[in-house]
Amino acid sequence: MKLFRCDNCGNSIYFENRSCLKCGLRLGFVCEEISLHAMQPDANHADRWRRVDQQQFVYRFCPNAAFDVCNWLVRDDSDEAFCTACRYNGLVPNAKSREGLRRWRAISDAQRHLFYSFLRWDLPRPSRKEDPIGGLRFDLKDDKINPDGSCQPVLIGHDEGHIVIRTAEADDPTREQQRAMMNEPYRTLLGHFRHETGHFIWNKMVRDAGKTESFRAVFGDESVDYDEALKRHYTRGPRPGWGSSYISYYATTHPWEDFAECFAHVLHIINSLETAHMFGIALAPMSHDFLAAHANFDPYSVLDFERIAEVWIPLSLALNTIHHSMGERDLYPFILTPVIKGKLAYVHSLLTRQI
């Protein structure tokens, strides 16, 4: 994730900031430039804004800014009402309730991190209006409360671009309970968004692009029955030694899930390395030269995934060790074996249009 500077006072500002902590000006994210800017009200139009550093364009804030859910901008000459991230939403939490608004803010934060990566790589993102059958749509759904008071949890999932996110997982206790029940080392809202959109990207950039043969050479035959594979996964589990070939337990279920998991991890790694790059992070551990690494490049511009892995592996190890020192679990509890790196490299090559 990039670091930004306030156009008005030069103070460091961050992706999530709504206003500059030094000069107080309101901040807005300009999707066309993938950049955060200081804004000032337009003198001639109510509820319209101009950038401090550039006056020629007039903007409006996404309507969800009224709920402090979003700080992204829309060009005033655009036909779109909502910003690049929010326009894909169908159902959203109830903003009239404190719980609903709190959940929506947490979910929206994760969703905008997802779309940051989509913008950096200019990944396909047709809406339901542009592609009624396979366009992207998010439904942020609450659990159903039955008449007897019992709870029927929403299932997170993807179906031809339609993605359902369970709003209850914006609550840390609920998400942690689900993580423990599923015996997962890691579970986040952003992880859900990245995994489920991985299925959407498979549809658009593999299936619809005629690249199934190259996909099968890396991930296997996706034409095997998915429902049977899922049933087998939950009744028998994966074969012994699965960790040498799959990034996660769930990736063993089916080639579709393997791809979606790898897509999520490529986004995890690239976005984290960009943050490390912006902070100038370098590792030079004493007497451990093999752990030396320097995030001295913009990972979104790198085409060689091996170069990315060479920095990410020691960096993630350092981050995990720091977490242990704080009594926390690993930040990145995954191992990149040669086979797994090959799968991540395939996804990365796909996203960078090398295949």
Entry summary:
The protein has 355 residues and is of the alpha+beta class. It contains 8 helices and 14 strands.
Characterise the protein shown here.
Helices cover 37% and strands 13% of the residues. Helix 1 packs parallel to helix 3 (189-207) and helix 3 packs across helix 6. The strands form six sheets. Strands 3-4-5 form a three-stranded antiparallel beta sheet, with no helix packed on it. Strands 8-12-11 form a three-stranded mixed beta sheet, covered by helices on one side. The protein has a two-stranded antiparallel sheet with strand order 1-2. By secondary structure, the chain is α+β, with helices and mostly antiparallel strands. The longest helix is centred in the first third of the chain and has 24 residues, at 98-121. The model has no long low-confidence stretch (mean pLDDT 96). A hairpin with a 4-residue loop joins strand 3 (26-30) and strand 4.
DSSP helix fraction: 25-40%
Q: Low-confidence runs (pLDDT<50, min 5 residues)?
A: none
Oligomer: single chain
Rg computed from alpha carbons, rounded to a whole number of angstroms:
21 Å
For the largest sheet, list the strands in their spatial order: 3-4-5
Q: Largest sheet, described in full? A: 3 strands, antiparallel
- Return the string of H and E elements: EEEEEEEHEEEEEHHHHHEEHH
The number of helical elements comes to: 8
Structural class: alpha+beta
